[in-house]
Design a protein that fits this description.
Elements lengths: L1 H12 L6 E5 L5 E6 L2 H4 L6 H13 L8 E6 L3 H9 L4 E6 L24 E4 L3 H17 L1
Parallel strand pairs: 3-4, 4-5
Antiparallel strand pairs: 1-2, 1-3
Length: about 140
């Protein structure tokens, strides 16, 4: 999660919503990393998770991320949760809960829907306070400025 937080800080520094993500292979090696970049790229899919999963797939040379762990500072939205299922991610680990848009247990629970053909393990609340604090600071500064 510390590495994902570094990615979130990179987003913060360039004015993007500070969410960061990394993908680890089965042995715990970093194979993908990313942070939100929707503003810079004008890409609605530019969420940290999507960027990190694309990076990991490129590293592996395959779209299947079986046995991999997606670590993200904020609970994934429906798009990112769905992409993690489609990529066959083995585990989703996240920090702060997203009560307004989270799709890994709070608002929806896409990844554990029994109707889907793949259900990653979920570990929630890892370093949640640190992850939430960065988001709180970002939005507080936006309201003041």
């Amino acid at each position: 999660m510390r590495r994902a937080l570094e990615e979130a800080r990179r987003a913060f520094d360039v004015g993007e919503v500070p969410v960061g993500a990394v993908v680890l292979d089965g042995s715990g090696e970093l194979i993908g990393a990313g942070h939100n970049d929707r503003e810079r790229t004008a890409d609605p899919t530019g969420h940290a998770e999507m960027v990190a999963m694309r990076d990991a797939a490129s590293t592996l040379g395959a779209w299947r991320l079986s046995g991999c762990t997606l670590v993200v500072t904020l609970e994934p939205c429906t798009m990112c949760a769905g992409a993690s299922v489609q990529a066959r991610v083995g585990r989703v680990v996240y920090g702060a809960v997203d009560l307004k848009g989270g799709a890994v247990g709070s608002l929806w629970d896409v990844v554990r829907d029994r109707r889907l053909n793949h259900r990653p393990e979920v570990v929630a609340g890892v370093m949640a306070d640190e992850c939430a604090a960065l988001l709180t600071e970002f939005f507080a500064r936006r309201r003041v400025g």
